[in-house]
Specification:
Elements lengths: L2 H20 L4 H6 L8 E20 L3 H4 L1 E4 L5 E8 L5 H8 L5 E15 L2 E15 L5 E4 L6 H7 L19 H10 L5 H4 L9 E5 L27 H8 L3 E8 L2 E7 L1 H8 L2 E3 L2 E11 L15 E18 L5 H20 L3 H8 L14
Parallel strand pairs: 4-12
Antiparallel strand pairs: 1-2, 1-12, 2-3, 3-11, 4-5, 5-11, 6-9, 7-8, 8-9, 10-11
Helix pairs in contact: 6-9, 8-9
Amino acid sequence: MSERTRRVRRSLRALALAPLAALSGCLTGALWGGYAWPEPTMVEQLADRRTTQVAGTLVESRPVLENGLWWCDDQHAPGRWWLRPHIGAGAEFVAALLADPEFCEVQSATVEALRSYAANEVLGDDAVLDLELRLRTEAIGSAVRAADVSPDAARVLATVRPNAYLRAAGPGAELPVVYRQCAERLSAVDLRRLVGAPIAVHAEAWVFVDAEGRPAFGGATDGAVLPEAADDEEAPLADRLAALRELSLLVRVHRDGAPVFLRLRPDRVWLSSGLHVDGERCTHRSSWYLQAAPAPLAAAPARDALRIDSTMLVQEDRYDRSFHAVVLDSGFLVKAVLTPVTLALDLVFGPGLGDFLRWISGKGPEPSHPQKGN
């Protein structure tokens, strides 16, 4: 049966049912009101599956959140793939990592993607990007002498508090939301590399300080002007990290029973907490979209752009589509069986029976004419 024939039959059915649906106040009209013959169902069946693994290079194009990551083959010639950021799924974090080469070195990347097609339509293009990194020595901070800690900061750091990661350093003081979140992330950061310890080391006490080393909140410098992003958890990550760079974070840890003071960069504390650390190996996973062509306005990478050795594994599934017309609709049969009953009731009790039944059921009668506004 051709599609044209199916359309003609549906139109004839609609014309045949129109007089019944027009009887708004009767049971038969209520029974058939809004009914339409079901549209053909679409079935997708896997026709072909191909898996390809190739080596090449990922190239950044700043700003990464606008221009994405470009795939090149071993000869650094532009390839067929382009990674478009999936905002909210780690791509923003990757852009921050790539924007701070002094914090870490990206050693390699792995892309695993699943793309699916039907006819000329792309059904899915999800991709996972795994980065392997090496943190720069002392990139997050360094040890400081006890004599270099201001008296006000030393008083805050003198007490170990169970809720140190949840509340501000000063009694009753409230941190701007981004600084509070940074303090919460501090509990996930292992500081052993900064103190040369063989086992995990975590902060026992902390305090945000200004350039002079004085507590930034709850003390003499409370109320210092900070960027708006400091108190906006919805601000772009780049803006939040820039706000964190306005202050330093002093922490106290213990090594061999003696206190050690560290001055940390809050923005890099934030980045460190987002990495998976396994010994000397650091990794990060994010979600992207693997597309066959870049966005129309995406800028190509610069000549000196960062290039990352990469392996790409792509599974491509092709589906065939078929459409099946609905030959027999169960809803139509039920209504057809009930129609003689509703017609008989309408003839006996009149067309107002439908409105009456709606009234006693609490739905109220349907207005026969739309009311105009005043």
